Predict the structure.
Amino acid sequence: MSENIPEKEITVKKNFIHQLIDEDLKEGKNDGRVHTRFPPEPNGYLHIGHAKSICLNFGTAQKYGGLTNLRFDDTNPSKEDTEYVDSIREDVKWLGFTWDDREYYASDYFDRLYVFAIQLIREGKAYVDDQNAEVISEQRGTPTRPGTASPFRNRSVEENIDLFTRMKDGDFNDGERVLRAKIDMASPNMHMRDPVLYRIMKVPHHRTGDKWCIYPMYDFAHGQCDYWEGITHSICTLEFEVHRPLYDWFIDQLKNSDYRPRQIEFARLNLTYTVMSKRLLLKLVKEGHVNGWDDPRMPTICGLRRRGYTPESIRNFADKIGVTKVDGTIDIAMLEHSIREDLNKRAQRVMGVINPLKVVITNYPAATTEEIDAINNPENPDAGTRKVPFTRELFIERDDFMENPPKKFFRLSPGVEVRLRYAYFVRCTDVVKDANGNITELHCTYDPASRGGNSPDGRKVKATLHWVSATDNVKAEVRLYDRLFTTEDPLADKDGNFLDYMNPDSLKTLPECYIEPFVKNARPKDSFQFERLGYFTIDYDSVPEHLIFNRTVPLKDTWAAIKDKE
Ligand code: ATP
Ligand code: MG
């Protein structure tokens, strides 16, 4: 992908769906229109899997100069809420897509769906069944055994109209009756064996209030909404492939011109080390296993946003993984790679010490502060340089020192000389400990001739350490995140509980970190690279008096390492 694309332009790799669209256009279908829709059910927050679908639907329409509708599939009021509607809107917008005034709801069509149901009854293609869900399911048979007809299948049109009207008027209780299509109880496709169209649910709806107590099934609503909106390509995930004959059957009953929406299925996105179903994500939130939908460990769009992911990185990821017909699982390292690639280009570099160990430069004057030049972003020469204060007392990373180092440890240890990034060569002369033998500080000497970190006489050091002044810095809280689960597929154990595989160390809070003064005015969503440690983004809860950084991603790119080996 070109690095020079303008921010707003969305690129989409050609995929099999585009080939199908090309064929449709060549055949002159639908007057050459391309119109897609993204149809979330407002029963949870969107996750990265939805992002794939969003990028595909909106990206495809853009590619063909077409349109995309945002349509809420709100046919099950018992699970839906306006909080979810609002979050979905925000997430789609944040990803960089617009739907103008084309925001629709399946509930906008409840009247028309009802009229359509009456039409089917009049045509002898639908009937009211008095049996309960269990009996209906039993009679439906199995893929190898045909179903048996309901004893109510051949009711008269008049009786059906009367019963269905009374269902709508609230004369019956939940589960007492359903409306079914009359198609084919022997069809090899189970979905064609007289599927349920309407069920009674005496639950107020977040948009229609108490108007309805019967609600259409998803299958009875979806294709018809597509049809009424003039959708040409109804892109959905593979599990709906077996629903397609039913989708088409409904359209056949509705259609009065050459136009018809075409359902096309693609493989849903699965990612390692996480779960991707709203039901399971809701459980994590409700039971307090995470701190809300936007917990930076969640695979939700709002979680990724809080963690520091950019819309560009998610769009690039969606494009790179491509679109196929085969279910698979993507390595989460690939998602991490995409944000690393993006932040590498744009993130300001700073030095921050997250596990501090004090260093006193004993031969450095006490009351002096030197301003040391540091490069803001080596990837972007225009980003320039900044000054970093260097003082007699500094912090380095505790991990960068070992009193008794093994052979391959090249960082600081007694008697060893290292470079402090951009500043000086220093040599460790003393290790100071408390009464319990814990190291409290190091004493070092510096070589004034090595200013800028340059060797004065050609002598070499084996390590360059980052550092922060102990007297001129910004104290901050840093949150380190690890994978939410300890296993690639937390659902692999069918009899197990995915919660048993949660990573107890997925969040580590470091309350006492020191960052160079440059970050003083950082605001939520600002991202930085802490040299050697990774990319960090300011959390929403951060205030200038108490800065909080989320580690978006460490620097080590395991995905690039995998690719290099290939
Ligand atoms: P979940 O199983 O997570 O609840 P869903 O399919 O029930 O997801 P919807 O709100 O119905 O969620 O989905 C809206 C759109 O997003 C649908 O077109 C659906 O096919 C698509 N979608 C959902 N999950 C994924 C995924 N993991 N990968 C790609 N597309 C997805
Ligand atoms: Mg769904």
